[in-house]
Hints:
mainly alpha
Amino acid sequence: MAANGHSSATLAPPPSVEVPTxxxxxxxxxxxxxxxxxxxxxxxxxxxxxxxxxxxxLLGPTGRGELAAVILWPNIFAGIGSFxxxxxxxxxxxxxxxxxxxxxxxxxxxxxxxSVTTLVCYLMLPVLLPADQRSVLPIANLYLLYIxxxxxxxxxxxxxxxxxxxxxxxxxxMLLYPVNLLLIVLAAxxxxxxxxxxxxxxxxxxxxxxVYRLYLALxxxxxxxxxxxxxQVMVESLRFGVARIVETLYLYADKALLLWLLDVRELGLYxxxxxxxxxxNSLAKSSGLVVFTIAAQSESRAGFxxxxxxxxxxxxxxxxxxxxxxxxxxxxxxxxFGRAYAGAVVAAMLLIPGSALAGLSLVLEQSMRGQGRPFxxxxxxxxxxxxxxxxxxxxxxxxxxSGVCFGVIxxxxxxxxxxxxxxxxxxxxxxxxxxxxxxxxxxxRLAGRxxxxxxxxxxxxxxxxPAQKRSMP
Length: 473
């Protein structure tokens, strides 16, 4: 094994063959990265909401619950089976390793981990689906192909995130959403109203997005050549693997509990409530993605100021937009999703503060993960998982869906508390609780940056737009 992490067993291309390579220079992360990633996430969330509305109206609460049951376990196994290799790959290229060699390793490892994970999930599905949901087992088995697509795609996206190439990162990750939306519209136009066509549409949309990203990769590299050691990647991913397992269980625990504790119709209502309550959280997710890269490219225990700025911005966002969404939810959800989902209104309102706490926690968790401390997030999620399971288990007996929502709120509050304690310990003297509380200066700073970005975009359009129009045939 070569000391630099590259496998000495692979053959490099002949000296006479010139292989185009991608730049190894990592890009600086500025305010534009936040804007671009945020806009992309808002677009993705808008598509997700539209998809949710269409599926809710086409399938009804019971059919929507069955679709959620079909994709639940493949999603869980896809998250667990990668064992954090995508995070390790992102950190490796963020340190300046050969992007081409790491990209080859990303493809090889995605195929390998997906093959093993798909087999395990296939064997476990008959046990994991409740007896009254065995009718969807054939569709769930078909959807197992998602695991292969997911692992390869996530690994390639990790390369873009680690190098700071957020333009390509954002295009590749958002492609799935409009494609899936178009396929849903097509299926509806053809008169389909059962679960199978829409599960296939989601699988095809994921496949198209990954094929596109694979095409971009193969434009710059050949598959034969120096390969960054998969063993080295796995060694580095060990720290993140446990974190990824806990993160995945934490992400889907509420749906799994609903699937087993209540009926599939309740799961359908909860899925609609979750979609309606999380329309704003895409901004927090996008900020977390950028914060990870900032932290990964920073020295150990450095960069807290920018993390704190992002956290305060998210607090301001939720204080304004979240309050508006909370007040509008009793009228908005039945109007958009249909009267059949009126029973999800209370759940959606309860999940809004839960989504806010989750978004804030995610920013801090991504900063710790970028600094090489994934177990901070693990501890926060384990604590939250225990709280969620306990509260949701007993709460669902008395309040149904609302009991599960109480469990989500309690879990997110616990997770945020643990993350703040970890950030305080990691950054030491640079940390103060006051740094996480927004002030008027933050409002003015954000307004100024947004104004400057809009002006820059307008100036660029005025300069290049007319010339581009004249050059068009």
